[in-house]
Amino acid sequence: GGGGVSMGNNSPFGAQFGAYSDMVKNKVASNWKTSDIDPRIRTANEVVVTFTIDKDGSVPSRSVRIVQSSGIAPLDVSAQRAVLEAAPFPQLPPQFTRNSADIEFHFELRR
């Protein structure tokens, strides 16, 4: 296993858009590849990545930022890449009133 991927506490989706939130999380988690991380590294500080999902589901690549580094550059890059490769997502739910959603994801390496 590559570890855990979770959405930050300030998710804009809340309970009302839980299914959309879960879909985004699962899509990002399935794109998180840790096979190129040194196998001797069993655990690491978590990586926190923020990004924006626009109304149409697209993710502007400039919005994908590492806001907390693990201290291991390949791990940080793998987390950022997971978001970029998971995009685009389905469009934001019609009931979601904003034009975009700012998302925070936590990536925790556990082997």
Characterise the protein shown here.
It is a single chain. With 111 residues, this protein is of the alpha+beta class. The chain has 2 helices and 4 strands; from the N terminus they run E-H-E-E-H-E. Strands 1-4-2-3 form a 4-stranded antiparallel β-sheet, with helices on one face. Helix 1 (18-31) packs across helix 2 (73-86). The longest helix has 14 residues, at 18-31. The N and C termini lie close together (6 Å). The model has no long low-confidence stretch (mean pLDDT 93).
* H-E order: EHEEHE
Average pLDDT confidence is 93
- Total helices: the number is 2
Largest beta sheet: strand ordering: 1-4-2-3
The computed structural class is: alpha+beta
Sheet having the most strands: 4 strands, antiparallel
Describe the global form. elongated
Number of strands: 4
Portion of residues in beta strands equals 15-25%
Q: Give the termini separation.
A: 6 Å
Helix proportion range = 25-40%
The rounded Rg comes to: 14 Å
Helix-strand layout with pairing:
Layout: E1 3-7, H1 18-31, E2 47-54, E3 65-68, H2 73-86, E4 100-109
Antiparallel strand pairs: 1-4, 2-3, 2-4
Compact description:
With 111 residues, this protein is of the alpha+beta class. The protein has two helices and four strands.
Question: Can you tag this structure with a few keywords?
Answer:
25% helix; 24% strand; alpha+beta; 4 strands; 111 residues; four-stranded antiparallel beta sheet
